[in-house]
Amino acid sequence: MSKFLLNQVVKGSKGSYRLIKSLTPHVFQAKVEGTTDLAAIKIPPANPYLFNDEKNTYSWQTIKTCPHIRSLREFIDDESSQCLVFEWMDRTLWDAKDESTEQKMKAFKAVARSCLQGLLAFQKMDRVNDYCHADLNPNNILISGFPGANPIVKISDLGFTTRAGSVDKHQARLQGDAIRAPEIWKGAAPTPAMDVWSLGVSLADWITAKAVFGYGGCNIETNFGPDVTKNAWAIAKLHKVRGAPLCDPLKEEYSSDFIVAEAFLQDNLVKDLSLREQLGQQQIPSDCISFIEDLLTIDPEERPSVDDALAHPYLQI
C-alpha cells in the first residue's frame, strides 16, 4: 500500500500535487503546484476493492463527462503513490446542514436537480444496463458556492456502483442503515429506485440537520442481539416516519429483523414523528415536503423514477 505524508508532492501526467491537509485516513486536500487550484487525493486502503471499483466506474463515458458528478482529474498508477485525483469541492451537504433553513431553501431545488441529473448518468451506463450509485448520502453529495441560490452540487464516492438487478458483492445489504430503501431492507435486488429513496433521505437529513432514519434513539436490548435489534429499530422507524405498514422480507435471513420491528411498532416504542411533522417543524413549505414525501414512497414500483422526479411540479416552479 502506498504511503502518503503531508507536504509530499505527488506527480501525475496532468500536474503535481502537494498534500496540505489530511481529511480522512485515505483522503487528502492538495494544492496543484504552480496554480492556486486545490484537488482531492484519494488513496487506496489496505483492501482496495472500493477504490478499484470507483476507478473503473470513471472509465464509463456517461460518468466521466457528467457535470453533476465530481470530476476525476487523473488516476496516478505509480507503485509508490497510487491515487485518484479529483476536483476540489468546498464541503459535503452534511457539512452544510447547520446553515439557516432560509439559506437551505434558497438552494434546495438546485441541490435536488443536480443530484437527479447526476443519477441519470448511471442509467444505461454501459449502453445496455442501468446501474445504481447504491450509497448516495449527505456525506458524498458535495457542494460549492453555498450559501447562495445557485451552488455547484456534485455526486461523489462511486465505489459501490452496482448493476441493477445484480447480487451485491460487497455486503449483505447495500446502503447504510440511515439511507437504506425499504426494498433493500427486505432483500430485493438493487434498482435505480434505491437511489431516488436515498436522495429523498439526504434532502430530509440536510433540511432537518439530523438523521431522520436509521437506528438513532435505539436504547433497548433484545434476545436477538445488537445487530438484529438495531436493524429492527431502523426498519420500525422507517415505517413509523412514513406511516406505512410493515411487509414481510423477501429473504428468510432477514425475518428476525422484521419480527422484532413489528414488536417495536406494536409496543409503540418508536416515538418519531411523521416525516411531514418533522419537516413542518422546520417551517418547510408544504409543496417541498410533498416532493420529499414522493421521493420517499415506500413501494419502489410507485416511487418516481429519476426522470419523473426531475419533472415533478415542485421543481418546475
Automatic annotation (TrEMBL):
Keywords: ATP-binding, Kinase, Nucleotide-binding, Serine/threonine-protein kinase, Transferase. PROSITE patterns: PROTEIN_KINASE_DOM. GO terms for molecular function: ATP binding; protein serine/threonine kinase activity. Residues 3-315 form the Protein kinase domain. It holds the Pfam family Pkinase. PANTHER family: MITOGEN-ACTIVATED PROTEIN KINASE (PTHR24055). This is Kinase-like protein. It comes from Microthyrium microscopicum. The lineage of its organism: Eukaryota, Fungi, Dikarya, Ascomycota, Pezizomycotina.
